[in-house]
Structures are given as structure tokens and as C-alpha cells.
Design brief:
about 250 residues, alpha+beta, Transferase(Phosphotransferase), domain 1, 2 domains, six-stranded antiparallel beta sheet, three-stranded antiparallel beta sheet, globular, binds adenosine-5'-triphosphate, binds magnesium ion
């Protein structure tokens, strides 16, 4: 297959820190292999698939291909009517590391785009982000009963930490806009909250955050979830799921 590979080492983690976890050349072969035969799907959203790797437990790979993403993966960050590319998502993850303390955000390692062709010879673009694999389960999986809530879950502090994280994120000018249960995770051992998936995040102000264009290319203020409202809704859903289980 003819293809081009382009790589970006995200400024996130220093080069030596990245090299400690995953070697760049390995990333190419990881992604090649994943595309041939998906190995261990650990999560699936509306746009992307996230795979774990048997060869390296510390990382996971988020893969977006343009048959699911309508060719939008290399849009620019500012003013993009579409979902963020893997590069841009990696930049958000990187920018958030400095406020990720009580609430974690996965460390991004490498992002790449590959242009190849599908079985009928049509050009096909794939973008991938290799990042820290969180020792956590998504609240969506907990709510729908696929996973148990970790024993260390402490309700008040969990949601207070998330609120203060969102506050700090907004102070940096970052709005997530898609805080549903699948984008919040909880540490399996320590109950720590994590926020993932900056595919619809923007740099914005409180005045325009939820009015920036949506993936349909139009301003659709109903398309995005207000970050604080999102947290509230997920909290209620989780409460209800836990009550229903008793
Ligand atoms: N760093 C990570 N570590 C462990 N699991 C992860 C990680 N990132 C994602 N996942 C799992 O993969 C799922 C899908 O990832 P993600 O939310 O990034 O995809 P998406 O297609 O952009 O989702 P959405 O439907 O919200 O747009 C998550 O809900 C989570 O279960
Ligand atoms: Mg998601």
C-alpha cells in the first residue's frame, strides 16, 4: 500500500520522557498492526476506537479514520467546524498537564496521520494518537453495568475535584464541550477522576465557548454540552445507576 506517514512529537512530554515509554519507530508498527488486525479494543466512542497493546501496557492508541470522520481529521484548531485532529487533541492534552493534579488527563506521546488507500483504491486517511493508558474505567461502563464502581470511589471529593478542574481548565481558556459519562474515567485502584477525549475541545471564552462551530460546519449551540452541566448530569446518572443496583 502506498502511504505517507507524518509524525509529530507533541511538546507534552519531553522527548526523553516519551522515549522511556514508547519508541517512535515502534509507534509506526503498532498502528500498522492495529489497522491490519485490531488487537484489544478498550473503548469505542462515536468517532474513534481506542486500542490497548499487548506489547506495551502503558500506552493505548486512539485511531480515527476518515470513513468514520468524514475526512475532517486535519482541520485546524481555531475555528474548525469539525472534530479536532489527533495532533490538536494531543496539544490540548499537553496544555492540560500543568493543571492535571487531583484530576488526571492522559499524557500524549505521539500523533500521526497516514494517507493510504482502501481496498477499492480510494484514498483513506487515518490519524492516530498514542497516549498514556489510564488505569481507570469509564463512567459509561460503570453506569451501563459493564464495570464495577471502584471500591475507593468517594462521591463528594470525586465531583468536587472535577468541578475545580473544569474551573481551572476554563481559566486557561479551554472548554471540553463533551463531558458525557464516556469521557470521564475513575481510577480502578485509587478512585481518582480523569477527563479524556478532547476531540471537540476549543480555546474559547465563556461568551463563545458553546457557540463555536460544530462538526456539521454550522453553529449549533445544541451540539455541545456545557461543561458544568455535563458533570451534573453524569453525577446524577451514576447516582441513579448505583441506587438501581441495590
Ligand atoms: N487514555 C485512555 N486510557 C484508557 N482508556 C481510554 C483512554 N482514552 C480513551 N479510553 C477509552 O476509550 C473510549 C473512547 O475514547 P474517546 O472518548 O477518546 O473516543 P471518541 O470516539 O472521541 O468518543 P466520543 O463518542 O465521546 O466522541 C473511552 O470512553 C474510554 O473507555
Ligand atoms: Mg469519548
Amino acid at each position: 500500500m502506498s502511504h505517507e506517514l507524518s509524525f509529530d512529537i507533541v511538546k507534552a512530554s519531553s522527548e526523553s520522557e516519551v522515549a522511556d515509554v514508547v519508541v517512535k519507530e515502534r509507534f509506526i508498527s503498532y498502528v500498522e498492526t492495529l489497522l491490519e488486525e485490531p488487537e484489544r479494543l478498550i473503548g469505542k466512542g462515536s468517532l474513534a476506537e481506542v486500542h490497548g497493546l499487548e506489547a506495551n501496557e502503558k500506552v493505548c492508541v486512539k485511531v480515527m479514520s476518515d470513513d468514520r470522520n468524514y475526512g475532517t481529521i486535519s482541520q485546524e484548531r481555531v475555528g474548525s467546524p469539525f472534530y479536532n485532529s489527533a495532533y490538536i487533541e494531543a496539544e490540548f492534552l499537553s496544555d492540560l498537564q500543568e493543571i492535571a493534579r487531583d484530576v488526571g488527563v492522559p499524557k500524549p506521546y505521539y500523533s500521526m496521520e497516514k494517507i493510504g488507500s482502501d481496498s477499492s483504491g480510494m484514498p483513506k486517511k487515518v490519524s492516530a494518537l498514542i497516549m498514556e493508558r489510564l488505569p481507570a474505567v469509564s463512567l459509561e461502563h460503570v453506569i451501563n453495568g459493564f464495570e464495577e464502581i471502584p471500591a475507593s470511589y468517594e462521591e463528594d471529593s470525586f465531583w468536587e475535584k472535577l468541578e475545580s478542574f473544569v474551573q481551572k481548565m476554563h481559566e486557561k481558556g479551554i472548554y471540553h464541550r463533551d463531558l458525557h459519562a464516556g469521557n470521564i474515567m475513575i481510577g480502578t485502584a485509587d478512585g481518582k477522576p480523569y477527563v479524556i477525549d478532547f476531540g471537540t475541545a476549543v480555546y474559547a471564552t465563556e461568551y463563545d465557548a458553546y457557540e463555536k462551530p460544530s462538526r456539521a460546519g454550522r453553529v449549533n449551540i445544541n451540539a455541545f454540552i456545557d461543561d458544568f452541566q455535563g458533570l451534573k448530569k453524569v453525577h446524577l446518572l451514576l447516582k441513579k445507576a448505583m441506587i438501581d443496583k441495590i
